[in-house]
Specification:
Layout lengths: L1 H10 L11 H15 L1 H16 L4 H12 L5 H10 L9 H21 L6 H29 L5 H27 L4 H19 L20 H6 L4 H13 L1 H13 L1 H17 L4 H30 L1 H22 L7 H27 L6 H30 L1 H22 L13
Helix pairs in contact: 2-7, 2-8, 2-9, 3-4, 3-7, 3-8, 3-13, 3-14, 4-7, 4-13, 4-17, 5-7, 5-17, 6-7, 6-9, 7-17, 8-9, 8-14, 8-16, 12-17, 12-18, 13-16, 13-17, 13-18, 14-15, 14-16, 15-16, 15-18, 17-18
């Protein structure tokens, strides 16, 4: 009976593509998922902070909003543990989680339409964005798990570049559209459009299987693949033991701390740039949203090529360290020259350069993180590698407003340089990018 069911499952889905077997399908699915699952980030990191800043919110209030809303991205280890332990295996290890989480994102956006918070409802807005990001993190972890599970080693640098490029384009598109709509105080229309985009992504993903013979939907024909059965954990202890061993490895711990420091400028851009541009430089909220969209598009283009070319010509290790050094130099230059800035030219130049470098450094670091993941606990282990930098980013975002109000914007740039320098030292001690030391699993 089971064999007959498998045969029947194979006979029906020939018009639908299995991601494990088709490079183009993998690429298309990951592009769409990363583009649309980052709808919350376009709202949270660019459009809404600028909207709040234009309404008179202080740097502390904007930072607190962004910090709270970003918190779910710090809990990705929990998401990964749940996914590695539980899955609806007839639909693959991750695909059911992707469809469920994106459906919940749509539900939260509909709730935002119904509640319609205004600029004075910062606490309510923070709660809704927290819930939206919580759903998005499940989708994000599931997509990362799919990438670790089915993307061949030879494709990983390219696929990571594509993942982050599509993420940047998604943030850009979302922030541009949301910025225009929020300029007329129309948060409900913004939420409706974002809900439609996420729903479209779910429909697109529903036409692909992870592996041949699996179900498209819970009521379709199909069965779990052998890879899914072999890799899916059936008890908590192997998962937890594997994660503990990974964390306790000294060089892995140093890598996590280095990654936490490497994203410092991203935290700065989350909380500080909106008030710097809107309240000090006199920009409107929609101008800042348009600027953020443009920067993300530039980062998307650079993210497609810089990590790939950097690894090809210099090696992953030299590429990562070179980008970190450039980030430190530019942050120092911005901090030391801030008092002499005239107009907004320097702000634009430093913001574009620092953001692009931060994104390309992140892509290169994630290539390394993928290489040291154990496929059996890939979602949990990779989620840990992502959760620690996200926790650091959330903490620094939430507290950067105090530094700005106490010491000024110039000192904040210098603080970014200092934290990045610590990250550089930690990455060197961890021998990040040295393939001869970590051939394929975390040691």
């Amino acid at each position: 009976m089971k064999h007959a069911m498998a045969t029947g499952a194979q006979s029906h889905p020939t018009t639908f593509t299995a991601l494990s077997e088709h490079r183009t399908a993998r690429l298309a699915a990951i592009i769409v998922l990363y583009f649309l699952q980052d709808v919350p980030l376009g709202l949270l990191l660019i459009a809404l902070p600028a909207w709040l800043a234009e309404a008179g919110a202080t740097p502390v209030e904007v930072g607190a909003f962004a910090g709270v809303a970003l918190l779910p991205w710090s809990a990705k280890l929990f998401n990964g543990l749940v996914m590695d332990r539980y899955a609806y295996k007839p639909m693959g290890r991750r695909r059911g989680w992707i469809l469920l989480s994106q459906s919940l994102m749509v539900a939260v956006l509909i709730a935002m339409v119904i509640v319609a918070p205004g600029v004075s409802d910062i606490a309510l807005l923070s709660g809704l964005c927290f819930a939206l990001n919580l759903c998005a993190t499940f989708s994000d972890v599931a997509v990362d798990g799919v990438a670790v599970d089915i993307v061949p080693e030879s494709e990983r640098t390219a696929i990571n570049s594509v993942m982050f490029a599509s993420q940047a384009v998604g943030i850009a598109a979302c922030s541009f559209v949301a910025g225009q709509l929020l300029a007329s105080s129309c948060i409900t229309r913004t939420a409706v459009i974002m809900a439609v985009l996420v729903a479209c992504a779910s429909l697109f993903v529903s036409i692909f299987r992870e592996r041949p013979g699996e179900r498209l939907l819970p009521w379709s024909l199909g069965e779990a693949s052998r890879e899914c059965e072999d890799r899916q954990q059936t008890a908590w202890w192997p998962l937890l033991a594997g994660i503990v061993r990974s964390v306790l490895a000294p060089r892995t711990l140093l890598f996590l701390l280095a990654a936490a420091c490497a994203g410092t400028y991203l935290a700065f851009s989350d909380a500080v740039n909106p008030t710097l541009a809107v309240q000090r430089l006199g920009w409107s909220s929609d101008r800042y949203s348009n600027f953020g969209a443009t920067v993300n598009l530039a980062a998307a283009g650079c993210g497609l090529f810089i990590p790939v070319l950097g690894e090809r010509f210099f090696g992953l290790r030299r590429s990562i360290f070179g980008q970190l050094v450039l980030l430190i130099v530019l942050s120092l230059a911005a901090g030391l020259s801030f008092a002499t800035w005239q107009g907004d030219t320097a702000f634009i130049v430093f913001s574009v350069a620092l953001y692009i470098l931060s994104m390309t450094t992140t892509i290169s670091a994630i290539v390394w993180a993928m290489r040291i993941c154990n496929p059996a606990i890939a979602a949990s282990q990779f989620a840990l590698f992502m959760a620690v930098p996200n926790l650091s980013r959330s903490f620094m975002t939430g507290n950067s407003g105090w530094l700005v109000e106490g010491e000024g914007y110039g000192a904040t740039y210098l603080a970014v340089a200092g934290v990045l320098a610590v990250g550089l030292v930690l990455a060197w001690l961890a021998r990040v990018g040295d393939d001869s030391q970590l051939p394929g699993t975390a040691q």
